[in-house]
């Protein structure tokens, strides 16, 4: 059975996900087989595993850092918010149902056997499991029946490292206050604290570290510097959304929908030299981009209403009418169609006109499509014509079925050649002039696709497109994981970490 260690935080965005990934990478570098585990994740960024099951992308990132294939057992419970008070609950990669927060809280105990089974199966196959908590363990109104912080640590018999974010300020109070609010048996499980995201001279911090240890009777195991890395993480998405890229030769605007999902779909474009990629929420921010991207969303119809009410829909139509390119992925693809119907109230209920730029209609169904796929782009016209013949790999996660509108025809964007490893010949998406849509998340991760998109935009502006180079995304990520591990290894007392791991609780 695997040894276990758990990273918890004083708040959300304290850096738990990245510290968990760092430990996964360090243990892998040291010759161990290691897997990440988070019993319950709340996120709109999800991923489809090789066996067609859905899990949170944070654990996918950690699995990549550990050098193993993502497996749904690493994240047995995924909550995908559908509104301010409810979520779609996914258990072991499959939809359990849509629930209000109150109903989910009432039924949480039913999930413990699923969590324990997933954890035990992982632990039987690896030397070390690095667990991640959620939010804070000191949410005193939620501690009863906890399944993700101290409750999970007890279930896994995992010693806990508690991290705090000094970049936000108040880190000493956050760490000491969190420990104060834990029960005695829980406090005994916390074997050390970590100061995360530190900028400056550690010597200035040293007196505070000593005082914190004296107050909490808990050693400080490391001060992790603020590292400028580019690693997919749920909490880091907010930083990406707020980033103001300098003007580039080619400008791409991503509409930041209120319920945006799988925003990592566009990272590969952002890495190409000469490209300025911005996330926008208002007409004023939109400007005059060369390409508008409409991302996925957990609620297509409600986000389309938002788009309509704040004036962005009208601007997208103006952009298209003037010959500008628009590309929608998943929910964004559905929005670009003529009609949306939700007869079972899967998302919003009723029917609604789409943006009307593609001659397609979407009907939301009770069954979710979940699959990994690969294929090639068909021969397409318009600004993005260089996409023709490009190979891609991706995955689908959606509740809708999109078909030609009555009496209309269109050209499919892609030919899908494999689904879940099985050879097929299916079509995906649609294209009409300069308007393109696809269900394939991860479409732009293909080096060939990303280069073709940007080259096309350069060509349309009369610029020299021969210099466009795309990034090997997989190789780029691996370098970032190594940099993360190097920084954390230097900051941690790894001898103590291994002693904690060996002793357990």
Structural class based on helices, strands and sheet pairing: alpha/beta
**C-alpha-based Rg, rounded:** 23 Å
- The CATH topology label of the largest domain is Rossmann fold
Order of adjacent strands in the largest pleated sheet: 2-9-1-10-11-12
First-to-last CA distance: 15 Å
Strand content: 25-35%
**CATH class term of the largest domain:** Alpha Beta
Shape: globular
Largest sheet at a glance? 6 strands, parallel
- Low-confidence spans: none
The pLDDT mean sits at 94
Structural features, described:
With 505 residues, the protein is of the alpha/beta class. It has two domains: 3-231, 3-Layer(aba) Sandwich (Rossmann fold), CATH 3.40.50.300; 244-473, 3-Layer(aba) Sandwich (Rossmann fold). The strands form six sheets. The protein has a six-stranded parallel sheet with strand order 2-9-1-10-11-12, with helices on both faces. A six-stranded mixed sheet has the order 15-13-16-18-26-25. β6 and β7 (86-91) form a beta hairpin. α1 packs across α16 (473-491) and α6 (171-181) runs parallel beside α8. The longest helix has 19 residues, at 473-491. The mean pLDDT is 94.
In terms of topology, how is this protein built?
Blueprint: E1 3-9, H1 16-29, E2 34-37, E3 40-42, E4 46-48, E5 54-56, H2 57-66, E6 77-81, E7 86-91, E8 94-100, H3 101-107, H4 112-123, E9 128-132, H5 150-156, E10 160-165, H6 171-181, H7 184-189, E11 190-198, H8 202-216, E12 220-225, H9 237-242, E13 250-255, E14 260-261, H10 267-270, E15 275-280, H11 283-286, E16 291-294, E17 296-297, H12 300-309, H13 312-321, E18 325-329, H14 331-335, E19 339-342, E20 350-353, E21 360-377, E22 391-404, E23 414-419, E24 422-428, E25 430-432, E26 435-438, H15 447-460, H16 473-491, H17 494-503
Parallel strand pairs: 1-9, 1-10, 2-9, 3-6, 10-11, 11-12, 13-15, 13-16, 16-18, 18-26, 19-21
Antiparallel strand pairs: 4-5, 6-7, 7-8, 14-17, 19-20, 21-22, 21-23, 23-24, 25-26
Helix pairs in contact: 1-2, 1-16, 6-8
């Amino acid at each position: 059975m695997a040894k276990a260690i758990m990273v918890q935080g004083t708040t959300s965005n304290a850096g738990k996900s990245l510290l968990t990934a760092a430990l996964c990478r360090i243990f892998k570098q040291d010759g161990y087989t290691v897997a990440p585990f988070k019993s319950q994740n709340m996120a709109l960024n999800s991923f489809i595993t090789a066996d067609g099951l859905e899990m949170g992308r944070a654990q996918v990132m950690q699995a990549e850092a550990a050098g193993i294939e993502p497996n749904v057992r690493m994240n047995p419970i995924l909550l995908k918010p559908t509104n301010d008070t409810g979520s779609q609950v996914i258990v072991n990669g499959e939809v359990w149902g849509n629930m209000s927060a109150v109903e989910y809280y009432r039924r949480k105990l039913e999930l413990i056997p699923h969590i324990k089974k997933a954890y035990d199966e992982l632990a039987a196959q690896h030397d070390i499991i690095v667990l991640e908590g959620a939010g804070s363990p000191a949410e005193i109104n939620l501690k009863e029946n906890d399944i993700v912080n101290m409750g999970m640590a007890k279930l896994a018999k995992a010693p806990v490292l508690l991290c705090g974010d000094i970049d936000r300020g108040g880190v000493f109070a956050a760490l000491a206050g969190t420990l104060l609010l834990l029960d005695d048996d829980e406090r005994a499980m916390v074997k050390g604290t970590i100061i995360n995201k530190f900028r400056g001279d550690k010597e200035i911090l040293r007196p505070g570290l000593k005082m914190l240890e004296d107050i909490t009777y808990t050693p400080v195991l490391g001060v992790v510097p603020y590292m400028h890395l580019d690693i997919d993480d749920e909490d880091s998405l907010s930083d990406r959304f707020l980033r103001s890229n300098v003007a580039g030769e080619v400008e791409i605007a991503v509409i930041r929908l209120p319920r945006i999902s799988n925003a990592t779909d566009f990272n590969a474009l952002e890495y190409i030299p000469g490209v300025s990629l911005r996330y926008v929420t208002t007409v004023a921010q939109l400007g005059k981009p060369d390409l508008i991207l409409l991302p996925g969303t957990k609620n297509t119809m409600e986000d389309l209403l938002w788009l309509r009410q704040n004036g962005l829909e009208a601007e997208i139509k103006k952009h298209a009418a003037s010959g500008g390119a628009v590309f929608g992925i998943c929910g964004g693809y559905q929005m670009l169609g003529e009609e949306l119907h939700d007869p079972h109230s899967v998302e919003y209920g009723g029917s609604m006109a789409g943006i009307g730029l593609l001659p397609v209609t979407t009907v939301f169904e009770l069954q979710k499509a979940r699959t990994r796929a690969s294929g090639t782009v068909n021969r397409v016209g318009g600004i993005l014509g260089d996409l023709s013949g490009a190979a891609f790999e991706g995955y689908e996660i959606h509740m809708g079925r999109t078909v030609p509108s009555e009496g209309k025809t269109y050209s499919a964007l892609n030919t899908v050649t494999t689904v879940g490893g099985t050879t097929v010949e299916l079509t995906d998406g649609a294209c009409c002039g300069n308007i393109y849509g696809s269900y394939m998340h991860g479409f732009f991760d293909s080096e060939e696709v990303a280069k073709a998109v940007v080259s096309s935009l350069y060509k349309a502006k009369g610029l020299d497109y021969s210099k466009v180079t795309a990034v090997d995304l997989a190789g780029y990520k691996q370098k970032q994981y190594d940099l993360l591990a190097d920084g954390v290894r230097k900051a941690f007392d790894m001898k103590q970490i291994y002693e904690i791991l060996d002793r357990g609780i």
